[in-house]
Each structure stands twice: as C-alpha cells, then as structure tokens.
TrEMBL record:
The keyword Cell cycle does not apply. Residues 12-182 form the Metallo-beta-lactamase domain. GO terms for molecular function: hydrolase activity. SMART domains: Lactamase_B. It comes from the Bacteria. Keywords: Hydrolase. This is MBL fold metallo-hydrolase. InterPro entries: Metallo-B-lactamas, RibonucZ/Hydroxyglut_hydro, WalJ/YycJ-like.
C-alpha cells in the first residue's frame, strides 16, 4: 500500500514523501533538508533516495544537503550539470532505462519543460502498485497501464490566466512560457482520459499556480471526470 505525504507543493518548493511500507523515497527536494526533517518529525534516516525531475530551485534546492546527509539523488545528466553537482551519491539516469531502489523499480521518461533534460518517473513496487509522478510538463507523450496512484502537476487554467492578463495582474509574456512548460487543467483532463484508470486509487494534483488556479474547482472537476479521490496539497 503506497502512502503519499506532500511536504511542499508550489513554486516556492516541491517535495513529496512516498513509501510502500518497505522503501521510503523522496520525490523532489525543492526545500531545505532541515525543512524536510522538520516536516517528517526528523524520521529521515530510512529514506533510501531522492528522485529529481529538473534543475529549477523549487525542485532541487535541498539536493546539496541531501547529498551531505548521505542520500543518493537520482537525476538526468543534464539536470546534474545544470545544478552543478557531482559525486558518488549523484546517480545520473537516462529516460526509458529502468533502475531499482529497494523494493521500487523506477522508469524515467521524458517530459516537456524548458530546462536541460527533465524527467518524469513511473514507480512500480513488489505489491503490483504503480505510481506516476510528472510535474512541470505541458504534455505527457506516453500512456501508462495499471496505474494505482497518479501525482501530476495541474498548474493553471487558461480562462483564469487570460482573465488575469486582461486585468493586468499577470504580464502577457508569461502566457507563452506557461503554455509550453506547465500542465494546464485541460491537458491534465486529456491525459487522464487517454489512460486506463480502472486501478487508480487516488489522484494528487500538484504545483498549482498561486494566481492562475482554483483549488476547489480543479479538485471538483477532476473528481467528476474520474470518479476517483483527488487530493490537492
């Protein structure tokens, strides 16, 4: 049984603790390690590794301290170079080449973001559970079978973004970047409709924009679409 705990989920920092009861992992380290320790009541000694999607600070700010504290951090070569880190605990990985950490088999896959070499992750455990983790991507090119847990970005809705631009609250130039770098509510819906959700037990909507989202609406619309429990940390 997979348990998910969101430690941070916004442009100020992203970090998620997952465990199947045997191998605890962190997805992202976008907050300081001290903050991670505090949020986990200093129960961090059993964390086996951290998976990093890309080099933006809100996803990797805590990586140097993670390494100092003996935690292996997995990321693409492009991400490691962009962060400027190296060492035996920096584990570089490639898209479509699976690897194992404890009881997890992890398959990285390409996502669409304006950075060096971003990745998403499909994690499968020995109990047959499958967790999809995808953030900071405007599109997911793949379909996945047998998912039980979905953690994906749902950053903005175009109608809210357009209204904010019309009202002068958001610079117009931001729109072009958002459309090509972050997951909209519409694209999340299309992704979910394209995948078999029969085994899905829960959906987590991550990394909502402070200005261009509506937590209640996003949760209600995804619940209505999928019939699944939806969490918005």
């Amino acid at each position: 049984m997979i348990e998910v705990k969101a430690l941070a989920s916004s442009s100020k920092g992203n970090c998620y603790h997952i465990t199947d009861g045997k191998t605890p992992l962190l997805l992202e380290a976008g907050i300081k390690f001290k903050e991670i320790q505090r949020k986990l009541d200093f129960q961090t000694s059993k964390i086996k590794a951290c998976l990093i999607t890309h080099e933006h600070k809100d996803h990797c700010a805590g990586v140097p301290d993670m390494l100092k504290n003996g935690k292996n951090c997995y990321m693409s070569k492009g991400t490691a170079e962009a962060i400027g880190i190296e060492g035996h605990r920096v584990k570089t990985i490639n898209a479509k080449e699976s690897f194992t950490v404890g009881t997890w088999t992890i398959l990285p896959f390409e996502v669409e973001h304006d950075v060096a070499e971003p990745l998403g992750f499909l994690l499968a455990n020995e109990d047959g559970d499958k967790l999809l983790f995808a953030t900071d991507t405007y599109y997911i090119r793949y379909k996945f079978k047998g998912l039980t847990h979905i953690l994906c970005e749902c950053n903005y809705s175009l109608d809210i973004l357009n209204k904010n631009i019309a009202d002068g609250r958001i610079p117009k130039m931001m729109k072009k970047r958002l459309l090509r770098s972050h997951f909209s509510l519409k694209n999340v819906k299309e992704f979910l409709e394209a995948n078999d959700l029969q085994k899905v037990r829960e959906i987590w909507l991550l990394h909502l924009s402070d200005n261009n989202s509506d937590e209640r609406r996003f949760k209600d619309e995804i619940q209505a679409l999928t019939g699944k429990p939806v969490y918005v940390p």
